[in-house]
Amino acid sequence: MASLPISDSNFTLGQAPLFGDPAISADRTFHAYVHIPFCRVRCGYCDFNTYTATELRGSSQAGLASVLQREIAFAKTELETQGFAPLRPATSVFFGGGTPTQLPASDLATILRDLRTTFGFASDAEITTEANPDNVDIEYLSALQKAGFTRVSFGMQSAVAEVLATLERSHQPANVPAALAAAKKVGLQNSVDLIYGAPGETLQQWRTSLEAAIEMQPDHISAYSLIVEPGTKLARQIARGELPEPDEDLQADKYELADELLSAAGYQWYEVSNWSRSVETRSVHNLAYWRSQDWWGFGPGAHSHIGETRWWNAKHPATYQKALSASDLDQTLVNSPAVGSERIDSKTRWIEKLLLEARIADGLSIADVKVANSEANRVISQLIADKLIDAALALRGRIVLTLQGRLLADYVVRELLG
Ligand SMILES: C[S@@+](CC[C@H](N)C(=O)[O-])C[C@H]1O[C@@H](n2cnc3c(N)ncnc32)[C@H](O)[C@@H]1O
Ligand code: SF4
User: Fold this and answer.
1) Burial (Cβ within 10 Å: 0-12, 13-18, ≥19) of residue 179
2) Ligand nearest, relative to CA of residue 153
3) Ligand nearest to the CA of 99
4) Is-contact 103 144, C-beta < 8 A?
5) How many A from CA of 19 to the centre of ligand 1?
6) Position in ligand 1 atom list of the atom nearest CA 96
7) pLDDT tens string for the chain (418 positions)?
8) Which of 187, 238, 269, 297 is the most exposed place for a label (fewest CB within 10 A)?
9) How would DSSP label each residue in 92-137?
10) What is the CA radius of gyration of the chain?
11) May I ask the CATH architecture of the domain 22-290?
12) Number of neighbouring beta carbons within 10 Å of residue 77
């Protein structure tokens, strides 16, 4: 991943970034992301901003909820001060990690209550938490549902014990159906994440995982191609030759198999890596990212996007907590935990819109592509000839990826941008 600028002309350490012209946000929805950066153990492939108990440098899991409450109060003041009031109620909230369910359900409930009282929630707001399949039970999930959560997303990854072991997951295959059944029983919408391409995983093992996921009938399934992130234990194991590198052709076969089995079971793709049983069970929160809406990311390392600005918080929970410590003189004064920001000019905004919307099933309007690319007609004809975008939908003015196009989504987007 490209390194991010630490600061720019729009940014002063300790102060809130400037969001720019409120008119930009007038027709955007508002969303909240809450990052809980804790895991019991780190999986070998994962480079998310997460810490085990021995890596907390004096900060604590127990203290995070109250620090998050300070950032929530800080966000309200800043949004009001910078003309982004009246605040729009949040259309979705997403607790991600790390593992949010490392915290007691009462902590998640406290944070959620604070968000609700501060911003208000739309009547049909989607409120999700991620969870590890082996660290929740029915009492925990029931407490979340009572607190207002509507949805839970489990990191299933695979149904094959051997593959879970290669990924260094802490759970066993049997944990997932038990957790999913509990989520359904308490009335939570539900989703599972799968990963394909663990070193040594065969096509048959991937089929087993897909069939196991389908058999549980979750509302939503995400299937991610394993990314070998630099600096992870997995990357070192591959570099030392202890594990084989994922094979690109086999990865493509696995994606095709996923789409075949999921479609046959009634799941429709709505983003390259995401399938849902109905339009109603698509992830509102993820669609908000892909449609460049406004969101405030609370917590260590969280990224935010409001108005013309994107910014990101200090990554380590101890640094994050320090920034949000109240001033001795005035307990209501706290510093912004942001450590960098960037202004998104209109050209960048346009490019990002094309990049993100090309990956969703609703697709892009051809008229929008023509604004960015004077060669659009020629490029689109070629993409149709190569069967990478849907010919019939293109005639109706939309660019929507075909199955082959989804496999080459990055190439298609580069061509469209010119
Ligand atoms: C924050 S985790 C989900 C919640 C929980 N921590 C868990 O793992 O069960 C988010 C998801 O990102 C995906 N993920 C993480 N690292 C990945 C990688 N290197 N390549 C592909 N997917 C990855 C996994 O599918 C994981 O479920
Ligand atoms: S995949 Fe989930 S459980 Fe594993 S280290 Fe990453 S955030 Fe933690």
Assistant:
1) buried
2) 1
3) 1
4) no
5) 30
6) 1
7) 333 444 455 678 888 899 999 999 999 999 999 999 999 999 999 999 999 999 999 999 999 999 999 999 999 999 999 998 766 899 999 999 999 999 999 999 999 999 999 999 999 999 999 999 999 999 999 999 999 999 999 999 999 999 999 999 999 999 999 999 999 999 999 999 999 999 999 999 999 999 999 999 999 999 999 999 999 999 999 999 999 999 999 999 999 999 999 999 999 999 999 999 999 999 999 999 999 999 999 999 999 999 999 999 999 999 999 999 865 556 566 789 999 999 999 889 988 988 999 999 999 999 989 988 899 999 999 999 999 999 999 999 999 999 999 999 999 999 998 8
8) 187
9) EEEEEES-GGGS-HHHHHHHHHHHHHHH-EEEEEEEEEEE-TTS--
10) 22
11) Alpha-Beta Barrel (3.20)
12) 14
Q: Of 401, 130, 404, 125, give the one whose Cα is nearest residue 271.
A: 401
φ, ψ at 253 (rounded to 5°)? -60, -40
* Cβ–ligand 2 contact at 97 (below 6 Å): yes
CA dihedral (264, 270, 276, 278) in degrees, to 10, reads: -90
Identify which of 46, 102, 245 to mutate to test ligand 1's pocket (most ligand atoms within 8 A of the CB). 46
Q: What are phi and psi of 36, to 5 degrees?
A: -110, 105
Mutation test residue for ligand 1: of 38, 172, 193, the one with most atoms within 8 Å of CB: 193
Q: Is 25 in the pocket of ligand 2 (CB under 6 A)?
A: no
The ligand with the least distance to the CA atom of 51 is 2
Spans of all domains in the chain: 22-290, 358-417
Looking at the DSSP bridge assignments, the partners of residue 192 are: 154, 221
Quote the ligand 1 centre to 72 CA distance (angstroms).
26
Q: How far is the CA of 405 from the centre of ligand 2 (A)?
A: 30
- Report the separation in Å between the CA atom of 41 and the middle of ligand 2, taken as the mean of its atom positions: 8
| Residue 155 in contact with ligand 2 by CB distance below 6 A | yes
> CA 215 to CA 193: how far, in whole Å?
14
Helix axes 248-264, 203-216, angle to 10 degrees: 30
